[in-house]
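Sat 14:20. Reprocessing the chain from the morning session after the first attempt stalled halfway. Input below, unchanged.
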Amino acid sequence: LFLEAVCEENAEKALDRYQQIVDEHGRSPWADDALFRLYQYSYAVGAYRTARSYMAQLEKAYPQSPYAPKKAASPNASTAESKQYSVQVGAYSKEADATRQVNELKKKGYTAHVQSKTVKGKTVHAVWLGIFPEYSKAQAFAKKMKEQQGLDALVVRR
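Finished this time. Tokens:
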């Protein structure tokens, strides 16, 4: 059912399938993903109250999910704890190739972008997904990307 929702070209039909997963298969390993997709869509179309509602539901029902936000660190927390991470799923010498992968991932509902870096005169265009406040959250998401999408993924510091 989750795969059907991900592959569905009609957003409204995909939303119905994601909602069905949340409502009828709440113990499924895909339920938190489905709920996060509902949140992403609502936020993207400007339905911020609905998006907040989905995020609150995600936080309550799936507190260990890599999509569930963590509470803000105390002001005395070390700077190492406040680092942010992303998940790298590709690296290309041609920016067009990286952009192509970003567009494919965006069609699947992921937040992706190209991060270019020049090292020793050579530019590499990496494809990064998400922003995670903790390494462990990024690592869990990288594992899901490997399992769900078959992508080799590694955690990178932003």
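Helices lie at 2-7, 11-24, 31-44, 48-61, 95-107, 135-149.
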